[in-house]
Amino acid sequence: MTNADPHELQKFSELAHRWWDPGAEFKPLHELNPLRLGWIDSHASVSGKRALDIGCGGGILSESMAARGAHVKGIDLSTEALGVADLHSLESGVTVDYEAIAAEALAAREPGSYDVVTCMEMLEHVPDPAAIVAACATLVKPGGWVFFSTLNRNAKAYLLAVVGAEYIARMLPRGTHDYARFIRPAELARFVRLAGLQAVEFKGITYHPIGKYFALSDDTSINYMLACRREA
After folding, report:
1. Residue 170 is assigned to a ligand binding site
2. Is residue 158 predicted with pLDDT exceeding 90?
3. What is the pTM of this model?
């Protein structure tokens, strides 16, 4: 069975045509993308590397890595989102290879094939996040980098990421996140360790509402990222 929630796929597929509208539902991703891209690039130096973006959606991160010189493949199970990604790639002239395939299926087909693997804002939307982490570990080359981002599970994250962002500030559509699927850093670290990856750096992401911008932080209590390496 595919490691995906049909309700989650439908939710994001219905919004697919809005992926590249910087003022619509995915505005936070557009604002966050330069920050996370810079952090990824500071570790992995993506130019000239073969990169895989798992759960790529409409291709915001995929295209930005390709624009920095990476050879990028983006995968997702939403054909609607991939259609939007393909169209935008044609319009922008930034080449990305998109495919509708599950991470686990691609891992069986192309093990050890990528220098860089990213899986951003996805783990909290699937039934079995540990299986996605294991697939990432299989897909990356020895010595390569894997990057995750997700949401911590605690009262603060619920109040700010769900109640605040979805119901008060309306930065995100209501129902975007299911709090029960949020992942504590210790849980993600365990998934990573069991998959044979080495955790290199946890980094928090904080939002400054007055200036309306995101910044890197040592505070991982809400949004956070994790950089990992596979031993050479």
Report:
1. no
2. no
3. 0.92
